[in-house]
Amino acid sequence: MRAMGSWYADYENTLQTEPSGMYSPKFNQVHDRAILLEAMRAYSFATLFGPASGEQAGAGALATHLPLIVKDAGEHGILEGHFARVNPHWQVLAGRETLVVFAGPHSYVSPTLYTEPLSVPTWNYIAVHARGTLSLVEDDPGKEALLADLITTHEPAYLEHWRGLPEGFRRTMLAGIMGFRIPIARIEGKFKLSQNRAPQERRNVHAAQSAGSPDEQALAHWMERLLDLTTISLIGRKRGSNSGGPLIEKNAD
């Protein structure tokens, strides 16, 4: 068994963070494109952040919660969705960089799971931050296509019913929304899964979460997929690679 000082030295080597909009120690970062797309699709009810303007300028910033479609296109993917037309946020975000936050499963982690007595509680979670310039989809055919994709994703059987509704009714519904598209220009994935703990402690966390709530079970599943539960390294794929290999290298600088 490796001494506590030995694995902790390895951990400290991965502690550095890269300049980003989200605080994320290097050992929590995930760069694999396929995994990030999968996470965004799995947790696709996202939050769009942008500045306030006009009568709401005093608020400083606005946030809108929306279900999104995540498309496997472009360098990092494309996000599509729609606002209610009466929501003024779309007017502010049009043509501007927009931050989109995908919040995944999260859970409390008890220090009783650790072998080190000088430990405190923490929280494990998954989050993906995507940024890109929001462009509007204003024409009826374009908005119709956005809705069709959303319906196909969540209730495919309803699509035929939607298309069979009276044309006047559908036009009214389409007039009440404003579609948008965001090609992702920059993306950050943070998968906080107890990577900074000793191997036995990570196994304890995994065992407890495997028997816990749905969120805890989801985190345990991600631990199984992304962590080697006997070491501190992440496993998976290299950044930008579609083949096997380390997701990030051990003790990456």
CATH architectural grouping = Roll
CATH topology category name = Pnp Oxidase, Chain A
Q: The biggest beta sheet, please?
A: 6 strands, antiparallel
The CATH class turns out to be Mainly Beta
- Cα gyration radius (Å): 21 Å
Uncertain runs = 1-17, 236-253
What's the number of extended β-strand segments? Answer: 10
Question: What is the gist of this entry?
Answer:
This protein has helices at residues 4-13, 33-42, 89-93, 140-154, 158-163, 167-175, 199-210, 214-226, and strands spanning 29-30, 45-51, 61-67, 69-71, 78-84, 97-109, 122-133, 135-137, 177-183, 186-192.
Question: How is this structure best described in words?
Answer:
With 253 residues, this protein is an alpha+beta fold. It has a single domain (4-226), classed as Roll (Pnp Oxidase, Chain A). It has 8 helices and 10 strands. The chain has helices at residues 4-13, 33-42, 89-93, 140-154, 158-163, 167-175, 199-210, 214-226; strands spanning 29-30, 45-51, 61-67, 69-71, 78-84, 97-109, 122-133, 135-137, 177-183, 186-192. The strands form 2 sheets. The protein has a 6-stranded antiparallel sheet with strand order 1-10-7-6-2-3. Strands 4-5-9-8 form a 4-stranded antiparallel sheet. Strand 4 and strand 5 (78-84) form a beta hairpin. The longest helix has 15 residues, at 140-154. The radius of gyration is 21 Å and the shape is elongated. The two termini are 25 Å apart.
Question: What tags apply to this protein structure?
Answer:
four-stranded antiparallel sheet; 10 strands; 253 residues; disordered N terminus; Pnp Oxidase, Chain A; disordered C terminus; 32% helix; six-stranded antiparallel sheet; single chain; alpha+beta
